[in-house]
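Quick illustration, no need to memorize.
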Amino acid sequence: MAILVAAAVGAYALAVSLLAPRLLERELKSMLEPEAGISLTIDSVLVNPFTLTVSVTNLSLIGPQNTLQVSIEGFAAGIHPASLLERAWILREVNVIRPRLDLRNTQGGAAEISRLSSAFRRLLARKPSLANARIARLTIHRGELRASLRRDSTGGEASLFVFHDLEFAAEELSGSVADNPWSISATINGDARLDARGQLAAGPDATTIRFGVAVDDASVLEPYLDAGPGFTWSAAAFRSDGTIVWSPDQARVEASLHLRELDISELKDGRSLFGAAAVEGVGIVFDTSSLVPMAVDSLRLERPWLIVEQQAAGELNVPSWLQALWFNAANSPAWIENVDVSGGRLVYVDTRVSLPRELRSDDVVGMITQRGPDGEVARVVSMTGRVAETGTGEFSAEWLPSRPQGPTHAVLNVQQIPLSAVSPFVAEVLGRRIDGGNVDMNLRWSIEDDELVLENELVVRNVQFGTSVANAASANLDLPLAVALLEDGSGVSSLNMPPGRRPATSGFFPGNALRDVIAGYVKELTSTPFETLAMLVDRPGIDLERLAFPAGSATIDDATADKLAALKSTLAQRPGLGLIVHPGYDPVADRKALALQQIVLHVVLATSSGPPGQADEGSIDFSDVKVWTVLDEFSEQRLSASQRATTNNHPSKDAAYYRAVFDALVDNEMVAETALNRLARYRAQTVISELATSGYGINRIRQGEAIDATAAEDAAVVRLGVWPLD
């Protein structure tokens, strides 16, 4: 009996040891070669009939034209005895030693993997024993994966992607599993370390993989993820957690992402243009059945930076994908619902001119929200931060990505911005650099009928101008005068400028339009200074430039006194402003008034009818015989025969006749130019003296050149000018 048992065991061991390996090798070849066109070679297959273990050495799969190469140095599997009862492969433990997959011909290799996968699915459908197989534990030791991957489909240079020292472990694998754990570790391209773990759930309709993956040097992925033409990127590390659901009709990934030390730089000079100390994405979804390739619920950027270079009108030197993400929702690579920014830095650089222009904002905190799909997609922006080191700013806007020329509505409110930081943006328009002072700005702009409309309120403090900047556009701007007209006793200037308009196609950044509006405002302000002063005393209709006097007189009447009172108030509010008083006279009205005064004086003296200092036209009695005698004498001496003939229209020499003689003497009386100039000076001195009563001396009020003027209603006029104090 013992001999029979021994013989049976020996026969069993011999049959299993000799026949099983050949059957297994033939089965493997019949599975792969006809189905997928894959050639299979095996050095040896060993089966231990007593421990029910299978060992395979040097297994190789080679696809057509070497497009797929798979090799396994060693394979060992333990078969559970229950396999015979359940008529399905139940493996206790499977160990794969030094597997190697080479996909360096990307397109062909990918095609062969697809063919191999299809063949394997057909095989499972045909062989229930395989379809119902279970593996208690699967481990892979020191594996290697090599692949040549391209950034795009244009046939560009492929980059080699290598996983080596790959370790994999999974438990309880079968055609239908729930939450079975797995783990992977590997070195990528000799530098970065990959660690991943998760759970696997497989069913008849879909496979679900929950994962957590970490790479300590994400820059190894740079050759395979495009930063855009002319740009490169790097990152220190990334971590991702999520779920993959894979079915025959759909692949969907839901994940979170944590990325550290992201940096996007220009290839030509290595300058960093965009990045963040940390990027955290929540609610990231990739769905092959969706019209949007990627959707993100929330993206948090910690200490990000963005350098925007404007190289030409409307042309920004930023990666194309970033422009698409912001400006063009239809071509955007992702739908990002919310972006949360903390500790950010934004630098705007204008490289279009020789004078450097750079404006920087730090400690930026805010939110960017993408709204839709009701109506047109809009991005709503709200940000706060430091501007130009010492200032603060708030920015809010609604931006339509389909209208990159500008936000539909936007408000920028900044406080205490150093004017030296603003100077490069306005110096070439204003004609002077600004070396000192600060400014508060409240800027509102919008798109209306394809025009960029700006409304601006500026408060400028203690402005100090520097050297001149050669620019023809600034030749007519008088900046010192503008400051004198605006600056109060505390050194504060308030500008509430009228809305400015320009075509919206000129670029989304409103700096150009703002410069034009400021230049236009300064030019208008300095060309009509007295309108500004009238607004200062809340009397927009008063003409403070012209001071009227009675003809032939330097006496201040009530109307002129009222204007002088208003001027005193403006001088008190504008300590940097001086006045120029131009002596003025009317060559017609004042000449006649002075001639009248001279004839009256002569008549009064000749008739001794009163003190000369009190002589006026009303003091002459044209019915007095003595007055007749004097006027007859003056007529003979001073009037020509033709002039005297004009008085003969009266039938008798009565009061009316002598009044006509008097008028003829006045019309004929010579008035020296020196007398008119003297009257003009007296008027100017009267004005200066009146203003001096309020404490404004020669340092602020000075006399200018005389001006000839013809005033309405026979009133002589003194005209005023303004000048900035040094």
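Confidence is low (pLDDT under 50) at residues 150-157.
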